[in-house]
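Slide 14.
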Amino acid sequence: MIRQSISYKDDKAFVFKQGNLFYRCLLNGYEKQYNCLMNSGLYAELVSKNLIINHTELSAEETKYFSGENIYKVIVPEQIGFVNYPYEWCFSQWKAACVALLSINLIAIKYGMIVQDATPYNFTFIGNQCILLDTSSFVFYDSNKPWEAYRQFCEEMLAPLLLTKYNGLEWPKLNRAAISGLPLKFASNLLPIKSYFNSLSFWHIHLHSFFKNEKTSSQNNLKKNHQNKPLALLQLLLLNIKSLQIKKNKSVWNDYYETNIESNEYLQHKQIVVEDWLKKIGPVSVADIGANTGNFSFIAAKYSGKVYAFDSDTNCIEDLFTKCKELQLQNITCAVEDMANPAPGMGWMNEEKIALLNRLKVNIVLALAVLHHLCITKYLPFEFVAKLFAHISEEYLIIEFVPKEDSKVKLLLTNREDIFIDYTEENFKKQFSIYFEFIEEISLNTSTRKLFLCRKK
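Slide 15: predicted structure.
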């Protein structure tokens, strides 16, 4: 039973992995809180509202296998195929996480409990639903005491959300460098003048930043902000955060299918071919690399229980997440990721936050109209990209080859020397054959592009 680094700060429980399953081991000191969570109706209400991860308890006999002097109970949480981290979220996902935490607290107070932590890393997305992962973060509520996680919430959740709103959708990516949150003074200095006229940023970031980190300072000086009235504070925060909006931005990519696609005939043919292959394979999970706004993610969602959509353009993921929410699609989970620079392992021993490539394993990788960007824009050799896709895929690869004669490749080569002498279809097949067997090849209508169905060797 090896304790995982992801839970090393928790003094009430720890996560461990046995075989392919993750477990949460609850310690004796958490017995009363856990029993209240489970027996009061709080857990049942949170599960019914998709706000907390579901779990089962091991029997006393099964728990003996994981024997330990301080172990109260071992639970088995629902096993999630892919956990995405806050620095992979778009603005609307950050907003949803803040709303989820505040909503959980308001529900918990009805049952005499409250969440003691306010870290976004206790949450992940399953489809478009933000889920609390940390079952052991509930403590008993005392209305005479302030919400202890208030400053943590402002530093680790609210500050990144407001910086994204005011300073641009690229801001969440910078949270890779601040996994413990942003000091309020730092966040206040980065926010524009107009943010002072927003009550949310004025009270909880700008004014809050003048006080020291000690509890006494915050608690004594923020009475006007309901710091000593957790229920009122949580309600006000929730109301204000729900009202936050961002201006929709247009990038080169989030209107790609409307303005930049090769031709409608090309797109329709590609959709038919990809859908036919997906239907025949019937995958359990699909990773759509360079998903854009999800045209092919939506097709994959018809035939796969889990679709993970990745794009480096935050505008695209913002649009995709919004569409999934509007359509109430629960089997597409999206994340902002640059596959030429995937998120590394970070935190304690580089294991506290697990590297993307250690979190992501799927039946099929979709790599449509993305190979030329990886090879020419990012200068990656074919063999590197093939190795990447083979690492992610456990079975199949559906990939599109875009030759140099294509108008989009010519555009990429504008104003740069063409040093890509190995960028040929022949070399593409040669290098990918190291990891994959080519099963089927189809030329796409009104285009020089080709689709390939490959099976991993």
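Speaker note: The two ends are 33 Å apart (CA to CA).
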